[in-house]
Design brief:
10% of the residues lie in helices and 38% in strands. It is mainly β.
């Protein structure tokens, strides 16, 4: 089954029962390198594997980069 979620303002399809951690890795990021909000709630890094996404969820991912 496929669900629709919104990632950084863009609608995407994902597998049902996908966790936030799986989504982050699928998008090519490391869970340690991003801050995540799901439906405007901040998700602590140690919980990304526990949060199962549902159809209609709005996810905001912010990646940290270093440099200057």
């Amino acid at each position: 089954m496929v669900i629709e979620i919104i990632v950084n303002g863009e609608t995407q399809e994902a597998e049902a029962a996908i966790t936030l951690g799986e989504l982050i890795r699928k998008l090519g990021f490391h869970p340690e390198s991003v801050a995540a909000l799901v439906n405007d709630a901040i998700i602590e890094r140690d919980r990304v594997e526990e949060v199962c996404l549902e159809s209609g969820d709005a996810i905001e991912l912010v990646r940290f980069v270093s440099g200057g």
